[in-house]
């Protein structure tokens, strides 16, 4: 037989479970349900009877005031040429334009290191950029070169070489910057 304590415990559990399940529904009161009010858009808007009408004007012909087009002038010039000149082809002269590098004497870069692993070079560049350096990578003959610059001040880059040697452990070279042929 069950003891008095067990009977009381089972009774208490039944009463508490009924209270937890039934009482919130009884004490909650009238529930309100919210519905969204939807406004429908009319298919065809209602028009007022006072609709404005506009008169459409025909465009005016004003072509007589315009000068002749450049194409017409060229055609007239070709008609006036001597037919003997058209028979002989003109030789084509190709002029080579020398490379203009305005920064060749004044811009400088630091070539810090050349690495075979491009990921390592990119990590070095990211670290240097976080430290405030203008760092870049350049692919060259299977190596990825880490470059600092360009900068106009040669003295500034010379000071940076010493700082970069402390950071990376490699001594960089100061080179002239050629923007057309980096």
Automatic annotation (TrEMBL):
Residues 102-177 form the SPOR domain. GO terms for molecular function: peptidoglycan binding. GO terms for biological process: cytokinetic process. It comes from the Bacteria. One of its GO terms (cellular component) is cell division site. It holds the Pfam family SPOR. PANTHER family: CELL DIVISION PROTEIN DEDD (PTHR38687:SF1), CELL DIVISION PROTEIN DEDD-RELATED (PTHR38687). This is DedD.
């Amino acid at each position: 037989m069950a003891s008095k304590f067990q009977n009381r415990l089972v009774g208490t559990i039944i009463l508490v479970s009924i209270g937890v399940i039934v009482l919130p529904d009884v004490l909650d009161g009238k529930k309100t349900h919210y519905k969204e009010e939807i406004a429908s858009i009319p298919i065809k808007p209602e028009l007022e009877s006072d609709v404005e009408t506009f008169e459409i004007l025909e465009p005016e012909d004003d072509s007589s005031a315009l000068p002749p087009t450049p194409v017409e002038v060229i055609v007239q010039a070709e008609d006036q040429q001597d037919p003997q000149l058209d028979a002989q082809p003109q030789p084509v002269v190709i002029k080579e334009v020398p490379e203009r590098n305005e920064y060749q004497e004044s811009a400088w870069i630091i070539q810090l290191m050349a690495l075979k692993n491009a990921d390592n070079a990119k990590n070095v560049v990211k670290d240097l950029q976080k430290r405030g350096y203008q760092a870049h990578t350049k692919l060259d003959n299977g190596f990825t070169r880490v470059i600092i610059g360009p900068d106009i001040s040669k003295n500034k880059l010379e000071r940076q070489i010493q700082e970069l040697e402390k950071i990376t452990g490699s001594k960089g070279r100061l080179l002239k910057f050629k923007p057309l042929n980096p």
